[in-house]
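Please produce the structure of this protein holding zinc ion.
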Amino acid sequence: MTDRRYEQLSWKIGDVSVTRLVEVVIKAPINSLFPERSADELSAYDDWLRPHFLDADGDMTLSIHAFLIRAGELNIIVDTCAGNGKKLPLYEEWVDLNTPFLENMATLGFPADKIDRVLCTHLHFDHVGWNTHQVDGKWVPTFPNARYLFGTAEWEFWKDEEDPYESNALDHALKPIFEANLVDLVDSTHQICDEISLIPTPGHTPGHVSIHIQSQGEEAVITGDMFHHPLQMAKPGWIDAADAESSLAEKTRVDFMQRFGDTRTTVLGTHFATPTAGKIVSDGSGYKFES
Ligand SMILES: [Zn+2]
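Below is the modeled complex.
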């Protein structure tokens, strides 16, 4: 039986196809991301948070995955997960990964040399890892024929910033891409092609963006880490320890739910466990995720 947490999921948004490729699924206590919060405070939302997003112990199930997009002639990867062989002292689950990520991409019709664009919603280690891979002890671009699009504001922030995760992503996943002249720094509303553009969703990081897809009257958004977990739709104001600016992150979440809530827009969560996709629906005075 296939493990549903890792199963391949695909969606069609008009003429655009989106496929999820999971690198790793982790279990994390609520208070590891939301200090001093617990699952007990979420019992009112059990009907939509369990069993997919909260497990029997009340821990969060978080999926680290990339989205592979085909739009016309373009092959795009959104967020490149953590990568193999990276040193991540703070996260046991991610140390020295050795997953068949690139082989799986090729099987899905996205061999690395056929990727045209790499989009990173932000520059945390679990969104940039496969930007590079190691060849003869050196970190080199994984997608040599792609343009890598990084947000200007995001890069300006991280290029001199201490890495809070001690992942050294700057040296092994970002600088080699600049050195290979594969980076385009873009603004937070950049249009990638007719169907796909960025929307600014700052707060988790200063230059964080989400990915907006529109085709044939259908619409979807890839969240990035504006939402780490669907529980934040019920609790947008819970302090997320990983957000750089808590109040801005909360405002971004609320604005986003007001814009896309109760619409037909499909929301694809970057760390949302299977089934990953759903709609934002109003629920009393707040919102819920209907997957
Ligand atoms: Zn993340």
